Here is the input.
Amino acid sequence: MKDIRLLVVDDEENIRILFKEELEDEGYIVDVAASGEEAIEKIKENHFDLIILDIKMPGMDGITVLNKIKNMNKEQPVILCSAYGEFRQDFSSWVSDAYVVKSADLHELKETIKNLLHL
Amino acid sequence: MKSIDLLGKVIEISHSNLEITSRIKSIVNIIAKELECEEVTLYTLDRDKRLTCRFKNNKSILFGILNQYRCHIGEGVIGSVAQRRAPQFYSKHDIPPRFGCLFYPELDGILERYKTFAFLPVSDDSYIYGVLVLGSSTIETLHEDEKIILSILSREIGGIFRSYDLILSSTKRISELVTLTELGKILSSNVEPYDLLKNIALIVARAMNAAFVSIRIEKSVLALETERFTYGTMDPAVERYIAPLEEKCVHLKKSISLEDYAEKVVEDKFSGFFMYVSPIISKNRILGTLLMGGEKSQPGMANEEDAAYLIDTIARYLSTGLETTLLNIRLRDVLRELGDAQKRLVEQEKFRSLGEMTASIAHEIKNPLAIIGGFTKRLANKANKDGVEWRYIDIIVKEVSRLETILNELLNYVKDVPIANDMCMINECIDEVIYLFAPDAAWENIHFVREYDTTLPPTRCDVQQIKQVFINILMNSFEAMAGKGTITIKTGQTYYREKPYVTISITDTGGGIEPAIIDNIFNPFFTTKERGTGLGLAISNKIVMNHGGHIEVNNNVGKGVTFVVYLPIKNNIM
Ligand SMILES: Nc1ncnc2c1ncn2[C@@H]1O[C@H](COP(=O)(O)OP(=O)(O)OP(=O)(O)O)[C@@H](O)[C@H]1O
Ligand SMILES: [Mg+2]
Here is the structure.
């Protein structure tokens, strides 16, 4: 399997650590960003196969980040991952490629990543 | 010269501050003295248009006889003077005058003593007040200048009566106004129904010095507990006539008195009583009745004619004010109920906020929980599956997942906002949306053409959301036409895949959509506008789909676009 690069965007440090370690165990190369602004910087400079985006963040929120990413590159796959299931109903989340409710069980997230990357 | 003196004295008295009867008495005596007449009497005209001998000089003998009989206008010499308003003079050679209407047997033998009689009308230019009578046993005939003086004097007396009448009627008018003002104050105040009726009854009683006033309000006017308020007590002998009298009044829709109601009964037994009732009518509807009564002889009580007039006036006044007042009272009750309802709403709102707080707490817990659970799982991978650590870790993982389930259920419960489920008249709904834009000057060059299907059935939907759809589509048309053009809105009914739908088609003259982008217009964030968000159609589409309908686009490049909204008539999606 060739190197697959993921970006985890979340304001909560422990979530970043958890996701990074779990996904690295899956064999991905994982980068993290603590805010929407940082994420945009990183995306401009690097290529990511997939971005995992939290919605509720101080400063630039996930929906705005999503909007910017899709404007930069319509094809960029993005997973919205939030503790809030309600955003799923929000039409503005529709442009994301998937929506996963945050949980201690990362099984659903991992499956979604595999599906989107056609693994 | 004597005559001129007399005239001066009479004028002086007539302009004095003396009470009217004293003034008349003095004048009568002065005339008797100055003209050497033993008899000077004055008949006055009563309300019933009959003449009564009421005033006399001190020495008068005839008065005792004359004042026992009353005569009609036109009857006898008195009546004819009053009718023709021309004086009559008799000298000893003339036939003795016939007083009044009857033959006065008591005058037999007395009249022969007099040599001269003079009868003068007491009047002003328009009204007759009475007749002045002079009799003398010494004077053979009256001189012409004395006759002239007498005419002037009788006119002067007429003037006294006239100004007295004026004062009397204006006093009456003033007291009537005072009464009405008081009533007005009561009617415009916010008193309880019971106090309202009580006050009205009191004011009326006071205004007329009546022994008994009863005001009754029809039950149907308002659901009042108090139907009647009575002031004073009515003699038990006539009390039982109150209810039937009121009933008759309501039935006839006009004022009636006890006499009108039961002439005979009143004649024999209750002639001493007076009772009068007026309907309170507003817009041809009887609101109630106002009744007044008492003994005719009660001192100070308004006379029957005045009382009837005043009761009628007050009843008329009440009818205009009462309905409003009673409505106001009811309005106040409704307002109070509304206030209570609002308080309850505030309570509910508190619960709602509690729900929201619960939701936000639950959310706060979810992240740490995911972290705890996530790392515990990582621990589990590293632990020895046979060791006690693994068992403990397994317990933690299971408990975390249980907590997550609980939180998700809680959040679902809290977020369960009911979707409005209205029965909507689509045509009206569109009109309301158009009226939103109509006052806006920017829309003045937009011409609306409406072709409604008036047989459209009510449609089950969330009106606010559906209005939002129309607003979004209309806004797009407005923007495409740059504020100038025609928007045609048609409603109708159709079948789509064998199911009935209401259709709303909105056509503009904005040049249509470029074919290259038409597939994108429903995508969120897709916009060709500098300041667009690209959400208008995305939201509209989602709303209509939630209603079990869909939106169709008919693009006519170069001309305009037609958006057709389909809403199912039997909506089983929501
Ligand atoms: N009546 C119309 N005529 C021409 N083009 C239209 C019409 N309605 C929509 N469009 C096109 O579809 C696009 C998307 O419309 P939509 O209402 O979703 O977003 P918007 O109007 O651009 O922005 P927003 O409604 O959020 O302010 C518009 O930018 C416009 O290019
Ligand atoms: Mg729009």
